[in-house]
Amino acid sequence: MFNFNYQNETKIIFGKDTEATVGTELAKHTKKVLLHYGGASAKATGLYDKVVTSLTEAGIAFVELGGVKPNPRASLVYEGIELCRNENIDFILAVGGGSVIDSAKAIAAGVYYDGDFWDLYTKGAKPTDCLKVATVLTIPAAGSEASTATVITHEKTNEKRGYGHPKLRPVFSILNPELTFTLPDYQTSCGLADMFAHVVERYFTQQRHDIYTTRLCEATMKTIVELGRKIFKDPNNYELRAEIMLAGMVAHNDWLGLGRGGDWSSHQIEHELSGFYDLSHGAGLCIIIPAWMKHVYHHDMPFFAQFANRVFDIEINTANLEETALKGIAELERFYQDINMPIRFADANLPTHEIDKLVTSAMSGRASFGGFVQITEADVKAIYELAL
Ligand code: NZQ
Ligand code: ZN
User: Fold this and answer.
1) Which of 80, 94, 250, 385 has its CA 20 to 30 A from that of 67?
2) Do residues 189 and 340 make contact, with C-beta atoms less than 8 angstroms apart?
């Protein structure tokens, strides 16, 4: 097990009607916030009104910035940074999903950086501090509600890049599963796919003294598959939505990766699909992860066989571990198809003749990346080709 320091300061406020407490929670930290949200959903579902009522009752002043798009864009971040500086904002409330939260985090870090905030994402620049961020989560998926990370797309280059800072973990996140009843099935599926991927990225590692976290990962993946197959038949089932929301948070709050590291190449390869083609991140992962698995499984056949056995109940054929490993990957693809996710470029109507452009962008000048298997430019190309 690797040495590690772990501190997750995000207070999780979980359960029915918890969004009504947002004003009183904020009042413990600030008197004025930037209220940041996405497109039409927050107002259409009534959540926006509930949040505004709670802020007003608690005496919290607010300045608004809506309009965050899925795959959040740099242009709104620039606007948010200016707004926070001009209005002396020290706290951002993100009401929405990963895109809104990530946009809020980008603004939070950008306010304390004296140059172009994009340097943080692309040049290793560091802010001197960060504004505080809190969230009211509306979709279990990205895990940004308890993570240090933010992912932004720059519309000038279509680069989709991530940045992380310990101070970007939200001060608190409000998770009311009822708020997810209004999700379109497609977004529920994308969320399931993303949280599953966050576990996959931590599960496949070089570290081999990791029995406890391996089992935590397997339990989380198994739970996501089991509940994912049930939720579409019963979308307003509070208990199912609650379990999924909890799994999505734990999948990415770094708990499952303690002492074991991770891989993360599938995320980097996927970000080119959502960056260039504005595909939902979760859908892109369903295309990339099976292809990545097919490309790397021979590096650790017994572990892939274990994945097949413990996550998908496939009996291990000790005489032919490769057969078991491949059955596990096929079963993962079947799960993705069962929840109506694409598993090939064509399923998502992505162009198939631009692979070289995607490869160059994914490499970003690096020779290789990936913690389970180091992959090079040729590997990235092979993975995209396996996904065609
Ligand atoms: O924009 P609105 O109208 O709010 O609609 C959203 C959006 O269209 C809608 N939606 C959200 N909650 C809803 C709802 N519709 C009805 N009812 C609700 N309760 O769903 C759509 C997708 O929202 P978005 O925030 O984009 O989804 P998600 O949470 O999946 O976030 C995806 C982004 O997070 C990044 C992804 O790359 C992507 O840009 N990630 C962030 C990570 C992090 N910060 O730690 C890690 C992840 O790996 C991921 O990369
Ligand atoms: Zn993800």
Assistant:
1) 250
2) yes
